[in-house]
Amino acid sequence: MALITYIGGTVAVSAAVPATVDQAGFAALTYTAVGSITEWGEVGDSSEDVTETTLAGRTYHANGALDGGSVAFTILSNGTDAGLTILKTKNNTNDEVSVKITDPDGQITYFFGKVANLKDRQRTASTMKGQTGEFRVNSATVRV
């Protein structure tokens, strides 16, 4: 398999959640592209490290609850962007938003959660106008 970059990938959002957390459920939603994404952080579950130490002095580990975590993102301001409008409208509410990421090789990744902490980017001479935020994942990550 050839190595690829994420150039050409897209991120789209839906203001709805799927009826089922699987490919069919997510694919049934209508998504709106978010333009000018410059960075979308790591996606995927991490498991809690559940530990117990015996009196003999040995610590045992087990994989516990799964957590999709908080995914940082950065977007540029480019005027009227319907996807960005969804993110702004849902920012710091408890409304769920579904995400569809399409990689250049065709892999699709779905999940849903909450948009939080949308802020203007730092203003410097070498920074383009935009926003940063985080997406708090509340579902399994579905890859197709």
From TrEMBL:
This is Tail tube protein. It comes from Gemmobacter caeni. The lineage of its organism: Bacteria, Pseudomonadati, Pseudomonadota, Alphaproteobacteria, Rhodobacterales.
